[in-house]
Design a protein that fits this description.
Layout lengths: L2 H21 L5 E5 L1 H7 L1 H38 L5 H55 L1 E6 L15 H11 L10
Parallel strand pairs: 1-2
Amino acid sequence: MSMGRFLSLVAMVGIAAGAAMAQAPEPTRIGFVDVERAIVAIEEGKAKLRDLETWAKPRQEELQKLGKEINDLQGELVSKRGVASQEALEQIQQRLVAKQRQIEDRQRVTKRDFEERQDALLKDLGGKMQKIIQEYAEKSGYAAVFLLKPNDVAYLAPSSDLTDLVVRLYNEKHPFSAPAAAK
C-alpha cells in the first residue's frame, strides 16, 4: 500500500470517527437525593416535625412519670422487706405489676401512634417531593434519580447530589408558613 493511500485511509477513519463522536449521545445523567436530609430542610418538614415533637412530648413525660412510679414502688418493696407483713408486700408487688403493665401498654400505644403520624407525614411530604424530583429530572435530562442513603455510598460527585436543589424547588412550589398561634 502506498503512503498516499495509507494517509487517505487514516484521514477517512479519522473523519468517520469524528462524525461518530459528533453523533454520540450526551453522557447519561444520574442524580441522587438524600430524602431524609431534604425533609428536615424544607420549611414544611421543619414545621411538621416540630408539631410531631410537640405531640410526643406530653406522652414522653407521662412515660417518665410512670417509670418513676415504678422505681419508687421497687424501692418501697426493697425497703419494706423483712419489716412489713407478707400481705403488705404482696399489695406493693401487685401495684408494681399493674404499673409495669400500664407503662408497657402506654409505650406500645404511644409508639404505634407516633409511627402512624410519622408515616403519614413522610407519605405526604415524600409524595410532593417525588413529583418535584420527577419534573426536574425530566426537564433536565436525567436518566435516573436515586434516593441516597449516605452510609451506602462510596463516592458521590457533588454535581450528582440534587438534595439542596430539590429543597429549594420544594420550598418554591410549596411555600409554607406556620399557622398563627392561638391566642
